[in-house]
Amino acid sequence: MKGIEAREISRTFRVDGHALPVLCGVSVAAPPGGFVAVLGPSGSGKSTLLSIMAGLDRPDAGRVVVDGRDVTGRLGLAGYMPQRDLLLPWRRTLDNVALGPELSGMSRADARRLAASHFPRFGLAGFERAYPRTLSGGMRQRAALLRTFLSEREILLLDEPLGALDAMTRMDLQSWLLDVWEEMRKTIVLVTHDVDEAIYLADRIYLLSSRPARVSAVLDVDLRRPRPYDEIVTSTRFLSLKREILGLLGHRPVVTT
Ligand SMILES: Nc1ncnc2c1ncn2[C@@H]1O[C@H](COP(=O)(O)OP(=O)(O)OP(=O)(O)O)[C@@H](O)[C@H]1O
Ligand SMILES: [Mg+2]
């Protein structure tokens, strides 16, 4: 099993002739088999960091390291789910999901068989032949996630994989994501701006400041696993971690007596 590290990453974009510093010496490390969350406000640079870790963009300074090797700018080492689900509208759902293993070099027939075998577990049974536009938002995100999980990569980089879902669906998919992760055993870096989601899912949380992003805190989430949703999110430890993070983010939690 492989881990991934971003070491001292800095990135400045040029916008209309002006420098826009986005990342400033950001270091994030996901140990082999670990679940790390990167939590930060909108526009802080989370997607930029993840695309650098995926090898899609190059940092101005710093390195991406997998298994002790410098892999900065190298594509294809990790499975990457971009912030928008990017299902291909002209491909049926099964063929969209099969694209994950196909791009890793599997034959189309094998890829389709593999993809189909996971449809029930991902709550997509019966929708193999449906086109993405006929699926619900949650189903589209599950299909995109399954495609990423089947990319045969040990490391997954997930950019707000449960964003844009209503609270109920989101809670459901968070528990589901933990189940699938425990079953398939991958190293995960998940980007989110949802405090509860980061605490519920991760072993460790990297808190980013607003742009230009620096790591403002690293918190270890010492909640037991497996994590039954209702029990965990109402536990004293969960709430104290949440209070700590909200404090670091500059929010004052409402105190009820
Ligand atoms: N290719 C680019 N060229 C210029 N500016 C960019 C580019 N990509 C991102 N930016 C800028 O970098 C900043 C950070 O963007 P980024 O998408 O990384 O934020 P984010 O933390 O993922 O936000 P959100 O939570 O809204 O998804 C923004 O101000 C954005 O406009
Ligand atoms: Mg983003």
Task: Please give a quick description of this structure.
With about 260 residues, the protein is α/β, with parallel strands linked by helices. It is built from eight helices and ten strands.
Task: Describe the protein.
The chain has 257 residues and is α/β, with parallel strands linked by helices. The protein has a domain at 4-78 and 153-248: 3-Layer(aba) Sandwich (Rossmann fold), CATH 3.40.50.300. The protein is 33% helix and 25% strand. It has helices at 46-53, 93-103, 108-118, 137-149, 167-184, 195-201, 229-233, 236-248, and strands at 4-15, 18-30, 35-39, 61-66, 69-70, 79-81, 155-159, 187-192, 204-208, 215-220. The strands form two sheets. The chain has a six-stranded mixed β-sheet, with helices on both faces. It has a four-stranded antiparallel β-sheet with strand order 2-1-4-5, covered by helices on one side. α6 packs across α8 (236-248). The protein is globular. The N and C termini lie far apart (47 Å). The relative contact order is 0.17. The model has no long low-confidence stretch (mean pLDDT 93). The site of magnesium ion (MG) has 4 residues, from α1.
β-strand number = 10
The fold-level CATH name of the domain at 4-78 and 153-248 is Rossmann fold
Please give the share of residues in helix.
25-40%
Biggest beta sheet attributes: 6 strands, mixed
Indicate the radius of gyration in whole angstroms. 18 Å
Q: Can you identify the CATH superfamily of the domain at 4-78 and 153-248?
A: P-loop containing nucleotide triphosphate hydrolases
SSE string: EEEHEEEHHHEHEHEEHH
Number of helices: 8
Q: What average pLDDT do the residues reach?
A: 93
